[in-house]
Design goal:
CATH class: Alpha Beta
Largest sheet: 8 strands, parallel
Number of helices: 16
Number of domains: 1
Strand content: 5-15%
Strand order of the largest sheet: 1-2-3-4-5-6-9-10
Structural class: alpha/beta
Order of helices and strands: HEHHHHHEHEHEHEHEEEHEHHEHHH
Bound molecules: zinc ion
């Protein structure tokens, strides 16, 4: 018998998160608090419970454009050093409580300069917030007697907005801060009409600097976007990449045939940062049970599971994994496979990835997976 797979046991086991937006994971009560503090007048309600429901409903409308509208409010209240530091600190605490041992959290510095902050102020406030939050969570774990209190490590990804024209500047910022907690670069925002090659200059710069980057591609738009992200821009990973299934045909008997691009993605071990609940909300997948993850996992793609926007999707790493257990019957081996996939794909030095896999992740899962010797 394996250890029971339930919310409590999944929360305890170490998890790795590669795709999480800082402005998509703000606590509802914090959105309301910050709005009051900075005099932000546009929130639909100041009641945290009503606000949580409003975000979930607005984000669940089925359109990526509508989904992105919800960020106007979170970004609207994250315009001061204090607000950015608080949101980052709470993010570190919340992810640690969710059992995340390594997270790459991303945000777009250019969205936080409406009240006069410089791009460097934004980055430094967020880095300070993560450091404070991770330290606070570690102290809480120590004082509560250890238990399953994991430590969290956070790597920052700096995002440029694909409809804007600051990507080269943001890429330079990512390189400037790369020894101070920034581990990579990304572009995000409405995908249709804004192909990744629009930001080729930024990606070429990252490559010349030996930097890492991921690109949101294959979420709202299909194969051409994925192809450009990989073959023109040189992305290390794909944000979502759901639509790679458009290049796979499955016969009635279940035999799958991969097109050239799908084969490249699988054979080259390109990590897919999949976000089940978010993908359902934006219409990239019809339901979690019909999410392409099921097929892609079966075909051996480098699949990872992520939260994307914990506020808008009202989710956590624990709830996403639990949803996959319900939809696909995943067991502890599957959850370990997803976790190791994510850790292998992190923008951390190789020796540090190995250490987390061998010293933190594998021992914890081993304790939950029955060993043959103990089966009696
Ligand atoms: Zn995203």
């Amino acid at each position: 018998m394996q250890h029971a797979l339930d919310e409590v046991s999944i929360r305890r086991v170490p998890k790795v998160l590669l795709h999480d937006h800082l402005d998509g994971g703000v606590r509802p009560a914090t959105v309301a608090d910050l709005a009051a503090q900075v005099g932000y007048p546009d929130l639909p309600t100041s009641d945290p419970a009503e606000l949580a429901a409003w975000f979930r409903d607005a984000a669940g409308s089925g359109s990526l454009e509508r989904y992105l509208e919800t960020f106007v409010h979170t970004v609207g209240v994250m315009q001061t050093r204090q607000a950015l530091k608080r949101v980052a600190g709470e993010c570190a605490v919340d992810l640690t409580r969710d059992g995340v041992v390594y997270a790459e959290v991303r945000f777009a510095p250019e969205l936080h300069v409406d009240r006069g902050l410089e791009l460097t102020d934004v980055v430094e406030a967020v880095l300070a917030g993560f450091a404070a939050g991770a330290a606070e969570a570690a102290t809480a774990a120590d004082t509560s007697g250890g238990g399953d209190g994991h430590r969290i490590r956070i790597g920052v990804l700096l995002t440029a907005m694909r409809h804007a024209a600051r990507s080269r500047e943001i890429a330079e910022l990512a390189i400037t801060y790369r020894d101070r907690g920034v581990v990579g670069f990304d572009i995000a925002g409405a995908e249709a009409g804004f192909p990744p090659t629009r930001h080729l200059d930024a990606f070429e710069y990252m490559r010349r600097e030996n930097g890492h980057f991921t690109i949101h591609a294959g979420e709202a738009f299909g194969l051409p976007s994925i192809w450009e992200a990989l073959q023109w821009c040189g992305a290390d990973r794909l944000g979502h990449g759901v639509r790679i299934v458009d290049d796979i045909t499955v016969d009635d008997d279940g035999t799958a045939t991969l097109g050239r691009l799908a084969a490249y993605v699988r054979d080259k071990r390109i990590p897919l940062e999949m976000c089940p609940s978010s993908n359902v909300q934006t219409g990239a997948a019809a339901s979690i049970a019909e999410h392409p993850m099921g097929l892609l996992r079966r075909l051996g793609f480098r699949v990872t599971v992520n939260t994307d926007n914990r506020l808008m999707s009202d989710c956590s790493m624990t709830s996403e994994m639990l949803a996959l257990v319900d939809a696909f019957g995943y067991d502890w081996q599957d959850l370990q496979w997803l976790t190791v996939n994510a850790m292998k794909s992190a923008f951390l030095p190789f020796d540090e990835r190995l250490r987390l896999i061998n010293d933190v992740i594998k021992p914890a899962y081993a304790a939950l997976i029955e060993s043959p010797a103990s089966s009696g």
